[in-house]
Write a structure and sequence with these properties.
The complex is a heterotrimer. Chain B is about 40% helix and about 20% strand. By secondary structure, chain B is α/β, with parallel strands linked by helices. Chain B has one domain: 3-Layer(aba) Sandwich (Glutaredoxin). Chain B starts with a helix and ends with a helix. By secondary structure, chain C is an alpha+beta fold. Chain C folds into 4 domains: about 160 residues; about 230 residues, no CATH class; about 130 residues, no CATH class; about 100 residues, Sandwich (Tick-borne Encephalitis virus Glycoprotein, domain 1), CATH 2.60.98. Chain C contains 22 helices and 10 strands. The longest helix of chain C is centred in the middle third of the chain and has 33 residues. Chain C is globular. The chains are: A mainly alpha, B alpha/beta, C alpha+beta.
């Protein structure tokens, strides 16, 4: 008896909570979410079909499952949605047109940064190979430091510098 | 000086971009339809009782091939749909002889009573059908409701309107279909 | 007018702002005129600002806890029947409150700095910068997004905090950590600017702020991983990172801060990269402001953009001001920070640090461009495009591999120049570790490239850490004649920075393994679980017992009890459910997770919980090694703390930095 009452109360709560949003009774396999993660949920703010709980995302997951059952490939299924929604729906931007730029920019950044680093390292290496002449201001600072009179405070405020190279 | 110019250029560029973003407001879904100038997908959906006499229990788009069409997607929970509904009915009364208006209730499931109330409230004289599992809205590449598709007599999509339509848009686009 | 909490809070924040403005002006005047009395006045005012801001926070908490709906923020974001902890954290559950929290933490840091920084040439200007930032945030609180606005007709109850936020206790932790991180990284920024202003672009500014920087970085790291855990438990799809714009913008300052804590070491040891370090810290600070702007203005679409308000333009203005002033200052002082660097050998510690810096910057750029690209395209030609998670994965994974590779090599390389012989020997050992680990992974049937590579690189890094430890401990043990264990302990206590960094790197390896395994090898299905009948799932059998419903404080839940069997024995009882809060129409599926060391079993209700039906639809996910991410994060945090605790015994001669840190730690 109490069980019945409980289930009735539960049904009421479930009705409030769930409404008609979860009306489907579907079993989905792992590939569905895998493909869903490549698709942007059309009605959500910024979620994938694999993540979202929106009604349309659920429906799209079911479509993916049906098409998988029909033997369609991942590319064909993605193509099905792309045909309807355009490139917008693909979370991985296709490598063409304007969207090619977003793929090329990071590569270009790595190349430019790597090239810049290479040039700098070569320059710094060259600087290190020169025998540094000690004269003028530097010499004066060393002398002052040796005399115990440290004008800039710059020498003593650092950990012991590494031993000078021969 | 050159360095300062570089700094100002970079910061200025970013600031301009973000200012654009601010003025634009939150991103909307006004993505041009991928179906533009291509034949719209066919569908066959159950019809609301009110239109049974004229259209039968199910409406098959293919049966109406050769007519220009205005296909409007709505849901009973959607505020803007209420705003545009009177304009749709007015356009139907004006152009209904030449153009087939179809309303599709979508992105809600088993909401017959609410759908019926919506239809009665605006006294829609054009057929309204039920897309319970939102399949048709996916086939049409819908981002949300309302969206309105203007289809030429040859079955290709002339224009998709995102958000509520008004009398002006309807007149302009329907006239274009008839031209 | 009677004295309501709203007017009291407004008064406190206005007072804080007024005092902060005074402190800023007095600070600038004191610094420019080298007037010690004005400087002291500014310093002491910082404490007063903190007290006033604290009052504002206390007033807000009082309003939240007493359900004073005449205060607009309370009326809009709180609810009478919410549990107390939710009311407390509602302070940072929406925009106005989180800016108040940020401002308050900033005033706290500024006050501590003002009181504990030793009298140093950098101090006046560093405090001026802190106070400038503080004026901005307090200005936002008092003038732009005032949470204390009084409602003429207060409602009887409010809607409560965002359901997604009150669904998990992590929300009490994650934002606070995030702001502690952001505010912590303001400190090195302030000192860097002070160094430029006072023409002392040496290493003092970074030594004075070393602990602040590390603590800020540690908080940010913890915040990001805590946010991941929140996503994992709340969002119901079994993932912890989605490359959502809001996640990205919190990640970018972390990337630049990580580059920074490595490259400052190059400057400390080798006097190189002066300009680079200044630029990095400017970038880090600017990115924290940019991130706040992007997430609070609705300019980019994000699941996490919780409420926007009038602050968008204000943060944009501040971003422009900060970048222009600080980069302009760098440009102005360029001759002083320009490197006259020498590099003895590319294959050296500094060489590796340089390279990893480039990789982190490239990652930052990748995240930035990926996040902003849709906005850029729209601005240029009006088109709407999508750049989503798969893009970030594909582009960043090779770079992460490079990071792991360099993380193994870098610490083993000596400064200046590596000795070819020992380097070759070390590399041989590490390559052995890599081959062994990757080979093992292949032998166990793993074929995905990145997980196998990550496991290989984990082997590489573990060998590298082993070599580091052995190389440090064995000679010491020989020299002192003590046992290995004792020597290791002593080493750990004496060389906290070194050992701490080793622990942090170990934590990174653990996190990397967790990410690689869980993203490469998860099983993610939706099953129908009939009540009372076990359904096989991998090594488990899942048996839905019965639906349940319960009421908590301000919350209604319905769910299903699921018994988890393994080898015929019940090992767990999971209760995935759906929560609804207050009268919000939004329901939050709340996953139930069986955490184990090897893998997580993750259940999330995906269909109606209908007692008249004979079963329930459940999303069932098994992902390997997810817990390693959380464990790794704990290791990382402990390693960071270890480096922060000042060493015992007489401090080295240099340490103004020690004094600052000690007060903090």
């Amino acid at each position: 008896m109490s069980r019945l009452v409980r289930s009735l109360r539960l049904a009421a709560v479930a009705g409030i909570l769930l409404g008609s949003a979860f009306a489907q009774d579907i079993v989905l396999d792992s590939r569905v979410f895998d493909i869903g993660n490549e698709l942007r949920c059309p009605t959500c703010v910024a979620e994938s079909v694999g993540e979202s709980n929106a009604a349309i995302a659920r429906e799209m997951r079911q479509i993916i499952q049906e098409q998988l059952d029909e033997g369609r490939t991942r590319a064909e299924i993605l193509g099905y949605f792309q045909e309807r929604y355009g490139d917008w729906i693909l979370l991985s931007p296709p490598r063409r047109g304007v969207l090619l730029i977003v793929w090329l920019l990071p590569v270009a950044a790595v190349l430019v940064a790597g090239g810049g680093l290479f040039v700098l390292v070569r320059r710094w290496r060259a600087a290190a190979d020169e025998v540094a002449p000690v004269a003028g201001e530097d010499l004066a600072r060393v002398r002052a430091a040796l005399a115990g009179d440290d004008p800039a405070g710059a020498i003593s405020a650092e950990p012991a510098p590494p031993a000078p190279r021969p | 000086m050159k360095r300062v110019a570089v700094v100002v250029a970079i910061v200025g560029g970013l600031a301009a971009l973000f200012l654009f973003g601010l003025l634009r407001g939150a991103p909307d879904r006004n993505v041009p339809s991928n179906l533009l100038n291509r034949p719209v997908p066919n569908f066959e959906l159950p019809v609301y009782e009110r239109y049974l006499a004229e259209f039968g229990p199910r409406l098959d788009l293919a049966d109406h091939a050769g007519r220009p069409m205005v296909i409007n997607f709505w849901a009973s929970w959607c505020g803007p749909c209420y705003a545009e509904a009177p304009h749709l009915e007015a356009a139907q009364r004006r152009y209904g002889d030449e153009v087939l208006f179809i309303g599709i209730q979508t992105q809600e499931r088993d909401a017959r009573a609410a759908g019926r109330a919506f239809i009665e409230r605006f006294d829609f004289t054009f057929p309204n059908v039920i897309d319970d599992d939102s399949r048709v809205s996916i086939a049409y590449g819908l981002f949300g409701v309302p969206e309105t598709f203007f289809v030429r007599a040859d079955g290709t999509l002339a224009y998709k309107h995102v958000g509520p339509v008004d009398a002006e848009v309807l007149t302009e686009r329907v006239e274009a279909l008839l031209r | 007018m009677d004295l309501s909490l709203g007017t009291l809070g407004s008064a406190a924040s206005a007072l804080a702002l007024g005092l902060a403005v005074y402190a800023l002006i007095a600070g600038i005047a004191g610094a420019v005129r080298r007037d010690a009395r004005l400087q002291t006045s500014a310093r002491l005012t910082a404490v007063a600002v903190f007290l006033a801001a604290t009052t504002a926070v206390i007033v807000m908490q009082a309003a939240l806890l007493t359900d004073d709906f005449s205060v607009k923020y309370v009326a809009e974001h709180s609810r009478i029947d919410s549990p107390i902890w939710v009311k407390v954290v509602t302070l940072w559950a929406a925009l106005e409150g989180s800016v108040l929290l940020w401002a308050w933490l900033l005033t706290g840091y500024t006050a501590v700095l003002a009181l504990t920084t030793p009298n140093h040439a950098l101090r006046p200007w560093a405090l001026v910068i802190m106070q400038g930032v503080q004026v901005f945030f307090l200005g936002v609180v008092a003038l732009v997004a005032n949470p204390f606005v009084v409602l003429a007709n207060p409602p009887f109850d409010g809607p409560g905090a965002n359901p997604l936020l009150q669904n998990h206790w992590m929300m009490a932790v994650h934002p606070v950590l995030m702001y502690l991180g952001f505010v912590g990284l303001t400190v090195p920024f302030a000192f860097a600017m002070a160094a430029l202003i006072t023409r002392r672009p040496g290493t003092e500014w970074m030594q004075l702020t070393r602990r602040w920087t590390l603590a800020g970085w540690g908080f940010l790291t913890a915040a990001i991983i805590a946010g991941g855990w929140w996503s994992y438990e709340v969002l119901g799809w079994g993932g912890y990172w989605a490359w959502d714009p809001v996640e990205n913008v919190s990640f970018m300052p972390w990337l630049t801060a990580t580059a920074f804590i490595h490259s400052v070491q190059v400057q400390e040891r080798r006097r190189m990269l002066k300009s680079w370090n200044v630029l990095l810290i400017v970038l880090t600070f600017a990115l924290t402001i940019l991130g706040t702007f992007l997430t609070r203005s609705g300019v980019v679409s994000s699941v996490h953009a919780f409420g926007d308000g009038p602050v968008g333009p204000v943060f944009l203005g501040f971003f422009v001001l900060v970048t222009l002033l600080s980069l302009g200052l760098v440009a102005w002082r360029w001759d002083q920070v320009r490197d006259r660097a020498e590099l003895d050998a590319a294959v050296s510690r500094e060489g590796a640090f340089l390279l990893v810096n480039v990789v982190f910057l490239a990652l930052t750029f990748m995240v930035l461009i990926g996040t902003l690209f849709p906005l850029i395209v729209e601005a240029v030609n009006g088109a709407r495009v999508t750049v989503g998670a798969p893009f970030f994965d594909v582009v960043s994974l090779p770079m992460w591999m490079l990071v792991l590779l360099l993380m193994g090599i870098g610490p083993l390389l000596p400064w200046r120049k590596a000795e070819t012989q020992s380097l070759a020997r070390n590399l041989a050992w590490m390559t052995g570790g890599l081959v062994l680990a990757a080979g093992g992974a292949l032998a166990f049937g793993l074929r995905e490239i990145y997980p196998v590579l990550t496991i290989g690189l984990a082997g590489w890094n573990l060998v590298s850490l082993g070599l580091l430890l052995v190389g440090a401990v064995v000679p010491r043990a020989r020299l002192t004649g003590r046992g290995l264990a004792t020597t290791t302990m002593r080493y750990a206590f004496e060389q906290r920075r070194k050992v701490g960094s080793m622990v942090v790197h170990f934590g990174v390896v653990v996190v990397a393994l967790g990410i690689a395994a869980s993203s490469g090898y998860r099983t993610d299905v939706q099953l129908r679980l009939p009540y009372g009948e076990p359904v096989a799932f991998g090594q488990y059998e899942l048996q839905a017992l019965a639906p349940f419903s319960e009421r908590g404080a301000g919350r209604v839940s319905v769910g299903v009890e699921v018994a988890v069997f393994q080898g015929g024995r019940q090992v767990d009882l999971l209760r995935p459910h759906i929560n609804a809060f207050g009268n919000s129409s939004m329901t939050v599926p709340t996953a139930a997770v069986r955490y184990t060391l090897g893998h997580d079993l993750y259940l999330s209700v995906a269909g109606a919980v209908d007692p008249t039906a004979d079963g329930v639809i459940m999303r069932v996910i098994q992902s390997p090694l997810v817990t390693w991410i959380w464990f790794g994060a704990v290791i990382l945090a402990l390693g960071t703390v270890w480096t922060l605790v000042p060493p015992r015994g007489p401090a080295p001669a240099v340490v103004p930095a020690g004094a600052t840190g000690r007060a903090r730690a």
